[in-house]
């Protein structure tokens, strides 16, 4: 069963377009936080923070070789790796 649909008046439709075009928040969203192993719901306004570290390594080696005055060859080799994220408890995250 779908929820009841109430028809919008022309002014309501116009107001919706007006707020969307101007980027005005007309329907705010709320973020609920959970805590603990049982993921109990926290009260509204509870601070949400986490410290996550994402190790990232990048290497690049390159060179330029001038073969003739009119021809130069530039080449390089690169390698990069991004390790899995870890939080402040040093547990692996599944981000």
What is the makeup of the main sheet?
A: 2 strands, antiparallel
Summed up, the domain count is 1
**Estimated structural class:** mainly beta
Mean pLDDT: 78
Q: What letter string, H or E per element, gives the SSE order?
A: HEEEEEE
Number of strands: 6
> Roughly what percent helix?
10-25%
Determine Rg (CA atoms, Å).
27 Å
Adjacency order of strands in the biggest sheet: 1-2
What's the N-to-C terminus distance? 36 Å
Please tally the helical runs, counting DSSP H or I stretches of 4 or more residues: 1
Low-pLDDT parts are none
Strand content: 25-35%
Overall spatial form: flat
How does this model look, in words?
This protein has one domain (10-87). The chain is built from one helix and six strands, in the order αββββββ. 14% of the residues lie in helices and 35% in strands. A hairpin with a 4-residue loop joins β1 (34-35) and β2. With 95 residues, the protein is mainly beta.
Feature tags:
single chain, 95 residues, mainly beta, two-stranded antiparallel sheet, 35% strand, flat
Brief digest:
With 95 residues, this protein is mostly beta strands. It is built from one helix and six strands, in the order αββββββ.
């Amino acid at each position: 069963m779908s929820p009841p649909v109430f028809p919008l008046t022309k002014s309501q439709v116009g107001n919706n377009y007006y707020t969307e075009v101007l980027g005005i928040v007309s329907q705010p969203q709320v973020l609920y936080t959970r805590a603990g192993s049982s993921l109990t719901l926290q009260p509204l306004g509870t601070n949400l923070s986490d410290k996550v570290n994402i190790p990232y390594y990048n290497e690049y080696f390159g060179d330029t070789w001038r073969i003739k005055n009119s021809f130069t060859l530039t080449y390089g080799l690169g390698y990069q790796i991004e390790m899995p994220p870890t939080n402040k408890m040093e547990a692996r995250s599944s981000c």
